[in-house]
Specification:
About 55% of the residues lie in helices and about 10% in strands. It is an alpha/beta fold and about 375 residues long.
Length: about 375
Amino acid sequence: MEVLHPHCAGMDVHQESVVVCVLTTGQDGNIVSETRTFGTMTKQLFELLSWLESESVTHIAMESTGVYWKPIYNVLEGYFDITVANAHRIKNVPGRKTDVSDAEWIAKLHRVGLIEPSFIPPEDIRELRELCRLRKKRLGHLTAEKNRIQKYLECSNIKLGTVATDVFGISGRNLLARLIAKGYVDEQDITDSLKGRLRSKKELVSESMVGSLTPHQIDLIRDCWEHIEYLEKSLENLEQKIDAHLVPHREEYELLQTIPGVSEATAASLIAELGVNMNQFPSADHLSSWAGVAPGNHESAGKKKSTKSLKGNSHTKVALCEAAWAVARTRNNRLSAKFWKTASRRGKKKACIAIGRTILVIAYMMLKNKQAYIENGSSPVNPAS
């Protein structure tokens, strides 16, 4: 095979160590191999950097092992052409599994260009990605704490959730604050707490607040309430940081929101996961496969055995599915019509994936061409795609 990278290195990355194999082509055309093991402390990573420079290495390949590759990538970024590979696609020959042989195998594959690089966005997008993923986690924790409080209330036979549409609306929060502070609520508390349409249900609310709360249950609710307040404050700070990171990408952020079903949070998540430079992906089909919303292709002896989608990028897939469910609740647009047409034939779950893929293809074309979504007429993507 043709040698593409005559001075390259392969890395087998672990939590406490990294095994590095350097392959260089000598003046006589022979391959010179040298393998060393380094620790993963910052000082040791800079020693690795110095050694690679002394060996005139230009290209590096490493496995995407958990999060352990990230500090190594951060130190070496800007000095070498770094390829982060999917570990599943560069497995060594069975029966020859050692750290040294793995590093040498990665170096040999990379030397002849047989390693397909994973998508690593620039630093600002990586920071935005971490913020958006953390926001998603915090929202999940917030929902869990709210559900936990409602469970404690139901266990005490306080039926506020059957009267109020949102227990954590303004009226519900006022009642919960008084309940936590005093251990009970009286008629005056209810009168002062109720706002809006709940005022007309004052008697029903009074009946629903009569229960058998114990001091133990009140302590549990108080603990959840304090956690909710912390999470809400944390989410406010995260929103501000996300908005600041989106300032350079405001055009793309607003373009994505023109797609039906794509909210501000979904648009931010898509930018965080995909970036704004679509040249990273050869085509919309490649991007769909990377996100895990493209049909699989497993064919043997002329028979298709499975069309199950690959796992892909789960965060992108979740954002697309949320957008698909949102567009299903809208009317008078072709995406909604396609959702229900597909759902009638194949079910709602498959329709969700199909519409998620369509939204992703539209987003790809919009970001590549800097063109807003057009519902009728010349659209960035074929409606049948």
